[in-house]
Amino acid sequence: MIRDLIAKTIAIYSHKRVSKHGGHTVAIFDQNERLAVNQKTRDIYHKQHMRMEADDITRTRMMGLTTEDFFEFPQGFLRGQKVLDAGCGSILRNAIAFYRMEAQVTAMDLGDEWFNTARQNMSRYDVPLDGITFASGSVDNLPFDAASFDFVCCDGVIPHLADTVQVEKAISELGRITKVGGYLFISFLAGGGLIETVIHDAVRRFYKENSQFSALIDRLTPEIFDEFVKFALSNMHYTTKDEFDINIFKTLFDEDLCISIQNICQAEKRERYSIDYIKCLLQKYGFDDNYKRLKRYVKRQNIRKFFAPFHYYSENIYAEMLYGEGYVDMIVKKTDLPL
Ligand SMILES: C[S@@+](CC[C@H](N)C(=O)[O-])C[C@H]1O[C@@H](n2cnc3c(N)ncnc32)[C@H](O)[C@@H]1O
Question: Least CB-packed of 5, 15, 92, 296 within 10 Å?
Answer without folding.
Answer: 15
